Protein backbone atom coordinates (compact mmCIF):
# COMPACT_ATOMS: atom_id res chain seq x y z
CA UNK A 1 0.00 0.00 0.00
CA UNK A 2 2.78 2.42 0.80
CA UNK A 3 4.56 1.74 -2.50
CA UNK A 4 1.34 2.30 -4.40
CA UNK A 5 0.72 5.57 -2.53
CA UNK A 6 4.27 6.73 -3.25
CA UNK A 7 3.98 5.88 -6.96
CA UNK A 8 0.69 7.73 -7.20
CA UNK A 9 2.15 10.78 -5.53
CA UNK A 10 5.25 10.66 -7.74
CA UNK A 11 3.02 10.23 -10.77
CA UNK A 12 0.93 13.24 -9.79
CA UNK A 13 4.04 15.33 -9.18
CA UNK A 14 5.50 14.30 -12.54
CA UNK A 15 2.20 15.12 -14.24
CA UNK A 16 2.05 18.53 -12.53
CA UNK A 17 5.65 19.29 -13.52
CA UNK A 18 4.96 18.25 -17.14
CA UNK A 19 1.83 20.37 -17.27
CA UNK A 20 3.73 23.37 -15.91
CA UNK A 21 6.50 22.92 -18.47
CA UNK A 22 3.98 22.52 -21.28
CA UNK A 23 2.35 25.79 -20.30
CA UNK A 24 5.62 27.76 -20.50
CA UNK A 25 5.93 27.82 -24.30
CA UNK A 26 2.40 29.20 -24.63
CA UNK A 27 3.25 31.96 -22.16
CA UNK A 28 6.51 32.74 -23.93
CA UNK A 29 4.80 32.74 -27.32
CA UNK A 30 2.20 35.17 -26.04
CA UNK A 31 5.02 37.55 -25.10
CA UNK A 32 6.55 37.27 -28.57
CA UNK A 33 3.55 38.95 -30.20
CA UNK A 34 4.05 42.58 -31.17
CA UNK A 35 1.52 45.29 -31.75
CA UNK A 36 1.69 47.01 -35.16
CA UNK A 37 3.64 50.00 -33.81
CA UNK A 38 6.34 47.80 -32.28
CA UNK A 39 6.44 45.60 -35.40
CA UNK A 40 6.92 48.71 -37.57
CA UNK A 41 9.78 49.86 -35.33
CA UNK A 42 11.56 46.50 -35.54
CA UNK A 43 10.95 46.32 -39.31
CA UNK A 44 12.47 49.80 -39.71
CA UNK A 45 15.56 48.78 -37.70
CA UNK A 46 15.79 45.66 -39.87
CA UNK A 47 15.73 47.85 -42.99
CA UNK A 48 18.39 50.13 -41.49
CA UNK A 49 20.73 47.15 -41.01
CA UNK A 50 19.98 45.97 -44.55
CA UNK A 51 20.74 49.46 -45.88
CA UNK A 52 24.14 49.40 -44.18
CA UNK A 53 24.89 45.97 -45.60
CA UNK A 54 23.78 47.06 -49.06
CA UNK A 55 26.07 50.09 -49.00
CA UNK A 56 29.05 47.95 -48.03
CA UNK A 57 28.32 45.25 -50.59
CA UNK A 58 28.05 47.87 -53.32
CA UNK A 59 31.26 49.58 -52.20
CA UNK A 60 33.09 46.25 -52.45
CA UNK A 61 31.45 45.42 -55.80
CA UNK A 62 32.74 48.71 -57.19
CA UNK A 63 36.21 48.43 -55.59
CA UNK A 64 37.07 44.89 -56.69
CA UNK A 65 38.60 44.96 -60.19
CA UNK A 66 36.61 43.28 -62.98
CA UNK A 67 39.43 40.82 -63.67
CA UNK A 68 39.16 39.52 -60.07
CA UNK A 69 35.45 38.65 -60.19
CA UNK A 70 36.30 35.06 -61.17
CA UNK A 71 38.80 34.70 -58.29
CA UNK A 72 38.06 32.18 -55.56
CA UNK A 73 40.28 31.10 -52.65
CA UNK A 74 39.88 27.41 -53.55
CA UNK A 75 38.02 25.55 -56.27
CA UNK A 76 35.42 24.27 -53.75
CA UNK A 77 34.01 27.69 -52.82
CA UNK A 78 32.19 30.50 -54.61
CA UNK A 79 34.02 33.06 -56.70
CA UNK A 80 33.69 36.80 -56.06
CA UNK A 81 30.89 37.11 -58.64
CA UNK A 82 29.13 34.00 -57.30
CA UNK A 83 29.10 35.41 -53.76
CA UNK A 84 27.61 38.67 -55.03
CA UNK A 85 24.97 36.77 -57.01
CA UNK A 86 24.22 34.60 -53.99
CA UNK A 87 23.50 37.84 -52.11
CA UNK A 88 21.34 39.09 -54.98
CA UNK A 89 19.34 35.87 -54.91
CA UNK A 90 18.78 36.30 -51.17
CA UNK A 91 17.51 39.83 -51.81
CA UNK A 92 15.13 38.46 -54.44
CA UNK A 93 13.89 35.52 -52.41
CA UNK A 94 14.66 35.50 -48.68
CA UNK A 95 14.22 39.19 -47.92
CA UNK A 96 10.67 39.33 -49.32
CA UNK A 97 9.76 35.95 -47.79
CA UNK A 98 11.10 37.10 -44.41
CA UNK A 99 8.16 39.52 -44.13
CA UNK A 100 5.56 37.37 -45.87
CA UNK A 101 6.21 38.77 -49.34
CA UNK A 102 7.06 36.97 -52.54
CA UNK A 103 10.00 36.86 -54.92
CA UNK A 104 9.49 38.39 -58.36
CA UNK A 105 6.87 36.54 -60.41
CA UNK A 106 9.49 35.44 -62.94
CA UNK A 107 12.03 34.30 -60.33
CA UNK A 108 11.23 30.62 -60.81
CA UNK A 109 12.02 27.72 -58.51
CA UNK A 110 14.26 29.27 -55.83
CA UNK A 111 16.96 26.59 -55.77
CA UNK A 112 17.27 26.65 -59.57
CA UNK A 113 17.02 30.43 -59.90
CA UNK A 114 19.65 31.01 -57.23
CA UNK A 115 22.10 28.57 -58.81
CA UNK A 116 21.48 30.05 -62.26
CA UNK A 117 22.22 33.59 -61.07
CA UNK A 118 25.50 32.46 -59.54
CA UNK A 119 26.65 30.72 -62.71
CA UNK A 120 25.38 33.06 -65.44
CA UNK A 121 25.92 36.59 -64.11
CA UNK A 122 29.68 36.91 -63.78
CA UNK A 123 30.91 40.14 -65.42
CA UNK A 124 31.41 43.06 -63.04
CA UNK A 125 28.96 45.44 -64.77
CA UNK A 126 26.29 42.72 -64.96
CA UNK A 127 26.84 41.74 -61.32
CA UNK A 128 26.46 45.35 -60.16
CA UNK A 129 23.32 45.79 -62.29
CA UNK A 130 21.79 42.59 -60.86
CA UNK A 131 22.69 43.57 -57.30
CA UNK A 132 20.93 46.92 -57.80
CA UNK A 133 17.86 45.27 -59.32
CA UNK A 134 17.65 42.64 -56.56
CA UNK A 135 18.20 45.22 -53.82
CA UNK A 136 15.50 47.53 -55.16
CA UNK A 137 13.04 44.64 -55.26
CA UNK A 138 13.90 43.11 -51.88
CA UNK A 139 14.00 46.42 -50.01
CA UNK A 140 10.64 47.49 -51.45
CA UNK A 141 9.10 44.22 -50.23
CA UNK A 142 10.43 44.72 -46.71
CA UNK A 143 9.58 48.42 -46.41
CA UNK A 144 6.16 47.78 -47.93
CA UNK A 145 5.26 45.03 -45.47
CA UNK A 146 2.16 45.93 -43.48
CA UNK A 147 3.17 46.14 -39.79
CA UNK A 148 -0.24 44.78 -38.81
CA UNK A 149 0.78 41.52 -40.55
CA UNK A 150 4.11 41.40 -38.70
CA UNK A 151 2.66 41.10 -35.19
CA UNK A 152 3.11 37.34 -34.83
CA UNK A 153 4.85 34.47 -36.62
CA UNK A 154 5.34 35.36 -40.28
CA UNK A 155 4.73 32.75 -42.96
CA UNK A 156 6.43 30.82 -44.46
CA UNK A 157 9.28 30.63 -41.92
CA UNK A 158 7.16 31.04 -38.77
CA UNK A 159 9.57 33.59 -37.32
CA UNK A 160 8.58 36.80 -35.57
CA UNK A 161 9.82 40.14 -36.90
CA UNK A 162 12.51 40.40 -34.23
CA UNK A 163 13.81 36.94 -35.12
CA UNK A 164 13.78 37.90 -38.80
CA UNK A 165 15.64 41.15 -38.06
CA UNK A 166 18.45 39.15 -36.44
CA UNK A 167 18.59 35.98 -38.56
CA UNK A 168 18.46 37.31 -42.09
CA UNK A 169 20.95 40.17 -41.72
CA UNK A 170 23.14 37.77 -39.72
CA UNK A 171 23.57 35.63 -42.81
CA UNK A 172 24.30 38.70 -44.92
CA UNK A 173 26.90 39.90 -42.39
CA UNK A 174 28.60 36.52 -42.82
CA UNK A 175 28.74 37.10 -46.59
CA UNK A 176 30.07 40.61 -46.00
CA UNK A 177 32.91 39.13 -43.95
CA UNK A 178 33.52 36.62 -46.71
CA UNK A 179 33.72 39.38 -49.32
CA UNK A 180 36.01 41.50 -47.14
CA UNK A 181 38.39 38.54 -46.91
CA UNK A 182 38.11 37.98 -50.68
CA UNK A 183 38.76 41.68 -51.36
CA UNK A 184 41.83 41.77 -49.14
CA UNK A 185 43.08 38.54 -50.75
CA UNK A 186 43.05 40.24 -54.16
CA UNK A 187 44.70 43.40 -52.83
CA UNK A 188 41.59 45.55 -52.29
CA UNK A 189 41.13 47.42 -49.03
CA UNK A 190 37.43 47.85 -48.14
CA UNK A 191 36.62 51.49 -49.03
CA UNK A 192 35.26 52.28 -45.56
CA UNK A 193 38.42 51.02 -43.80
CA UNK A 194 40.96 53.54 -42.61
What is this entry, summarized?
The chain has two domains: 1-32; 34-185, Four Helix Bundle (Hemerythrin (Met), subunit A) (Up-down Bundle), CATH 1.20.120.450. Helix content is 69%, strand content 0%.
What features would you describe in this structure?
- By secondary structure, this protein is mostly helical.
- The chain has two domains: 1-32; 34-185, Four Helix Bundle (Hemerythrin (Met), subunit A).
- It has helices spanning 2-32, 36-63, 80-92, 94-98, 110-120, 124-143, 161-185.
- The longest helix has 31 residues, at 2-32.
- The relative contact order is 0.17.
The mean pLDDT is 88
- DSSP E strands, number: 0
CATH class descriptor of the largest domain? Mainly Alpha
Task: Give a short account of the largest sheet.
Answer: none
- Span of the ends, CA to CA: 80 Å
Structural class: mainly alpha
User: Over the alpha carbons, how many angstroms does the gyration radius reach?
Assistant: 23 Å
Show unreliable segments: 3-7, 17-24, 26-30
Write the layout of secondary structure elements.
Layout: H1 2-32, H2 36-63, H3 80-92, H4 94-98, H5 110-120, H6 124-143, H7 161-185
Helix pairs in contact: 2-6, 2-7, 3-5, 3-6, 3-7
Structure characteristics:
194 residues; mainly alpha; Four Helix Bundle (Hemerythrin (Met), subunit A); 69% helix; globular; disordered N terminus
